[in-house]
Amino acid sequence: MTHDHSYVEDFAPGANVLPPRAWLDDDSAKLPLTGDWNFRLSASVADAPDDLKDPDTSGWDTIAVPGHWQLSGYGAPAYTNVVYPFPLEPPFVPTDNPTGDYVRTVTIPADWAGARVVLRFEGVDSRFAVHVNGELVGWSSGSRLPSEFDLTDLVAPGKEARIAVRVHQWSAGSYVEDQDMWWLSGIFREVNLLALKPSAPTDVFVHASYADGTGTLSVDSDVAGTVVVPELGLEFATGDEVTAAVEPWSAESPRLYDGVVRTEGGDVRLRIGFRTVAIADGVLTVNGNRVLFNGVNRHEFHPDRGRALTEQDMLDDVLLMKQAGINAVRTSHYPPHPHFLSLCDEYGLYVIDECDLETHGFGYEPEPPKLPNPVMDPRFRDDLVERIRRTVHRDKNHPSIIIWSLGNECGMGENLKAMYDLAKEIDPSRPVHYERDTEAEFVDIYSRMYTDPAGCAEIGADPELYRNLPFILCEYGHAMGNGPGGLLDYREVFDKYPRCQGGFIWEWIDHGLRTTIDGREVYAYGGDFGETIHDGNFVCDGLLFPDRTPSPGMLEYIKVIEPLRIVADGNGGVSITNRYEVLDTSHLSFTYAVEVEGVRVGGGELSVPVIGPGETVTVELPAADASQPETWVTVAAALTSATSWAEAGHRIAWGQVRLDELASQPAPPAGVGAGAPADGVAGVDGITVAGVKNAKLDVWRAPIDNDANPGVADAWREEGLHRVQHRIVSQGERDGAWEVVTRTAPPQLQWGLVSTWRWTAVDGGVVLDLSVVPDGLFPEVLPRLGITFELPKLEQVEWFGTGPNEAYVDTREAAAVGKYSATVAELQTPYVRPQENGHRIDTRWAALTTSTGTLRVEAVGTLFGLTVRDWTTHDLETASHTADLTPGDTTYVTLDIAQTGVGTAACGPKLPDRDKLKTAPATLSVSFTTA
User: Fold this and answer.
1) What would the pLDDT profile of 285-298 be if each residue is shown by its tens digit?
2) Residue 856 · residue 931 · CB < 8 Å
3) Residue 58's closest CA among 40, 34, 43, 44?
4) Each residue's pLDDT tens digit, 500-542
C-alpha cells in the first residue's frame, strides 16, 4: 500500500482528531512519552519511505522529545519576520519539504483495561500523521495547539504498541503560521498516552465571577458530579450555580481556591479564581477596577531549545515579570504551553491568549489579481474557526486569561468574524481582541501597534472614536537593540486618559540561538545558518537578552511602570502616588539615603502612611545638611516580607530628589583656575596633551537598530557623517592658552564643524575649553557631538553621574545619580548585533585607571556623556556579533556634549524632534588631571 500524503496540502485542520477540551488536572492515568524516540529525516515527502506499517528502526538515529530537529543536528533553523520562505500558492508547499519520522514502542499498562486510550500531542510543527501498530490513525495541524487521537481499538492493555509519527516541515497550515520567529520543526511539546475512564469527566468549564464581595460559581462537566470547594464550605452539583463570600482574583492579588469535581470515575482538580471582566464607559475593568496593562509580548523561546521550553523556563519568565512589575502578557502569536498559564493564575499575570494564527506575508486585504489573505479565503475558514475553538476550549478555565485574541497581522476577512462569533458563543464572559480590525467593526477592544504618544492621546481624548472601546497598544516600545526610548511619554498618556489602558512591549526576549561561528560562541540571528531568505537580527528585539539577563531597556521599562511614583513635592519633601490597581502599600517598607557627591552621609527608615490605590501622600524628609553641592536623597520602597515571586527587601520603586540648590553651572574642580598655555602636539592623528592622546571631534556612532532599519543611518551617511576628515586650521598660543582650531568635514560635501580647542595648563593637568560652530550646508541632525581620545588599556573606571547602566536622553528614567565603578568590559552592553552602547549621560567626573596611574576627567560647566570602550566605533559598527569584538592595548574614551536619542524607530514612530541632536554651536569644558 502506498502512503497517501495528500493531507499535507489539505485545507482541513485534521482528520480523526478528537474534539477539543479543557486542559485538566485529573485522575486519568498517564504514560509520558517524553525522552528518546527513533528518528529518521527524509529530504522530502516523496523521499520518505512507505514503511510506517512496520518500520525497521535498527539503523535510525534517536532524537529527544520534546525538541526541534533543526536544533538536534538535522537541517538548520531559518528566520523570517513577514516573508514566507516558499512561494505563495496555497495549499501547495515545496517539494523540498523535510519530513521527520518518529517511532517509539511502549507497553500499554495492563490496568488500563476498560479505559479509552488517547494519544495527546501538546504541540507539533507543522503537520503530522499518526500510525499505531501499522494503522493510520489520523492527522492534525495547528502547531501550537493540542491534538488527541483515540487508540482504544488499536491497542491492548498489557501489550506493546508501536507509535509512528510522520512530521512535515511545510504544509497548508504553514500559510497561517507566519509568526515572526524561527521556522523550527518537530514534536516540540510533550506527548502523553492517557487512560480515560468512561465514567470520568473529560471536559469541564469553570464559571467564577465576582461582584461586591460575593463570588458566583458554576461548573459545567461532560460527566455529572459534585463540586467541592472546602475552603468556602461549598458542595453542589455540576451545572448548579452557588454564591459565597470570597476574595477576588487579580494580577496583584491572585487569590485562588482549590476545588474538585468528584465523579464515580475520578476527580478533576480545579484552581478557581473569582473575577469579572467588564467594559463600561470605554474602560475595561476587572472586578470593577480599571486595568492598566504594563505588559509584554512573549514568544516561547530558549537559546538552546527553541520553543521546547521546560517548566523551569516558564517559571523563570513569570518570576522575572513579577519582579519587574509587569502585570500582563500577550501570548504572541499562539497559545503558550498550558503550564505557563497555570503559573500566570498562581503568581498573578493578566493574559491575552492569542490564537495560533498569522498571515502577514500575504499583505493586508490584498486586491486581485493578488491572492486573498487566508482570513478572506473561504477554503481556510474551517481550519481558522477550529483554531480558535481549540484555543478557547483548552484554556477556558484559567482566571489569568481575561481577553481572547483572534491572531496577529492577518488583515481583515469574513473568517475572522466567524472566529469572533465562535469565541463569544463558547465564552461570552471575556472580550475578544484583534488588532487589524482597524475600524472596530466587531472587536470588543480597540487595538493598535506602534502608534506614537500623540496618536494615543487623540484616541483617549475623543469618545466618539472607535465606538468608545477600551484602547490598548498590543505592541509598542519595540525593544530591538539599544532601546526602547521614550517610554515615559506613553506612560503619561496612559495615566491621563482612562480609555488608554496601556500596552505590551514588543517583546519579551531576544530570539538569539546559541551556536558557534568560526570557533566562537555567539547568539545567531537570521542569515547565520546560511538562509538566503531571512530578516536578519529583527528576531532580536526583546527586553531580555537570549540568556534571560535584563537589557538596559528592561531596566528602563521597570522604572517607567513601577507601581509607586516617588518625586519631589517642591517643598523639600517627596510626593508618593500609589499606582497599584487594588493593593495599598501596607506590604512595603520605605527607606531613604542621603549622598553627597555619591558618598552616603545619612539615611534610614522613612515613615510613610499606608497609601490606598490611586492615592497620593506627601512625606516630609528627615532633616539633612543641604549646603554641600550634589546632595541627593534617594527614597525607595521594598517588600517587607518575602512573596512567592521575590525575597524580602526586593525593591519595588524608587525616586531621587536633589536637596542642594542647583547652581547654574557646577563649580570648577579644585585646582582649576587661571593657568598657562598647555604643551601639546596636534597632527594627523589628533591632539595629544597631558596624557590625552589623539583627541578628535566625534560625530558618528555605530548605528543602532533604531538608526539602521528606518534609514536614518543611511541619511546620515549621505551627509558624510560616517567618514569625516580632520584638518588643522591653526595652532599656537593665544590669550593664555594653547589654541588649536580644526575643521571636521566629510569629503565632497560643503559643510564642516569648526572647533576651537583651548588647552590651559593647571596644577596636575590641563583644562580644555572646546567650542564647535557649524558652517556651510550642514546636516540638520548629528548622531553625536563630542570628543574621542585614546588611553593605554584601562583597568577600572569610576564615575560620578548617572548609572549604573547606560542612559541616553530618552532612556534615562532608570538612571540614578551616584558614584559607580566598573571595568571597561562591564561598561559594555552585549547587544546581539553590536551597535552604539554604554553611554552614561550627565557625568560629573570620571577616574580612568591604567596600570600606571589615573586620569581624572571632570566637567567644568555643562555635564558630559561618558563612553569607554576597548575598540573603536568602526570595530563596533563592522562587527556582526559580540564575539567579533576583541580588546587590544588601547582604550577609547568619548566625552559627548550630546547624543541623539535612541527611540523605537526600527519598528515604531520616528524619533521626536525633542530627542534629536540638532546641529548648532556647542561647547564643552572639562579638566584632565593625573594621579
Assistant:
1) 999 999 999 999 99
2) yes
3) 40
4) 999 999 999 999 999 999 999 999 999 999 999 999 999 999 9
Q: What angle do CA 787, 759, 821 make, to 5 degrees?
A: 50
Q: Cβ(36)–Cβ(63) under 8 Å?
A: yes
d(CA 820, CA 797): 8
State how far the Cα of 79 lies from the Cα of 832, in Å rounded to an integer: 15
What is the rounded CA–CA span in Å between residue 322 and residue 336? 18
- Closest by alpha carbon to 795, among 772, 824, 769? 824
3-class secondary structure per residue, 610-668: CCCCCCEEEECCCCCCCCCCCEEEEEEEEECCCCCCCCCCCEEEEEEEECCCCCCCCCC
**785, 931 contact by CB (below 8 A):** no
Chain mean position to CA 860: 40
Element (H, E) at 343: helix 338-347
Q: Are 297 and 328 in contact (CB under 8 A)?
A: no
Q: Distance of CA 799 to CAs 370, 386, 482, 624, 827, Å?
A: 59, 59, 22, 24, 11
Supply the DSSP string of 57-105, one letter for each residue: -TT-EEEEESS-GGGTTSS--EEESSS-SS---TT---S---EEEEEEE
**Beta bridge partners of residue 307, listed in sequence order:** none
* Contact (CB, 8 A) for 608 and 619: yes
Residues 6+ apart with CB under 8 A from 307: 68, 123, 125, 181, 184, 188, 299, 300, 301
- What DSSP element (H or E) covers 707? helix 705-708
- pLDDT tens-digit series, residues 97-109: 999 999 999 999 9
Label residue 736 left, alpha or beta by phi (over 0 means left) and psi (-120 to 50 means alpha): left
Ramachandran quadrant class, 873 (left: phi over 0; alpha: psi -120 to 50; beta: rest): alpha
Predicted TM-score (pTM) of this structure: 0.97
Nine cell digits for residue 251: 494580577
Distance of alpha carbon 114 from alpha carbon 26, whole angstroms: 17
Radius of gyration of the chain (CA): 31
Q: How far apart are CA 848 and CA 867, in angstroms?
A: 11
- Per-residue pLDDT reduced to its tens digit, 607-649: 999 999 999 999 999 999 999 999 999 999 999 999 999 999 9
CA atoms within 13 A on the CB side of 812: 16
Q: Round to whole Å and give the CA distance between 83 and 74.
A: 23
Residue with cell 488583515: 411
The residues carrying an active-site annotation are 409, 475
Q: Read off the amino acid at residue 236.
A: F
Confirm if 798 and 821 have CB atoms less than 8 A apart: yes
Which residue matches cell numbers 493531507? 7
CA distances from 494 to 112, 471, 597, 653, 913 (A): 56, 10, 35, 19, 22
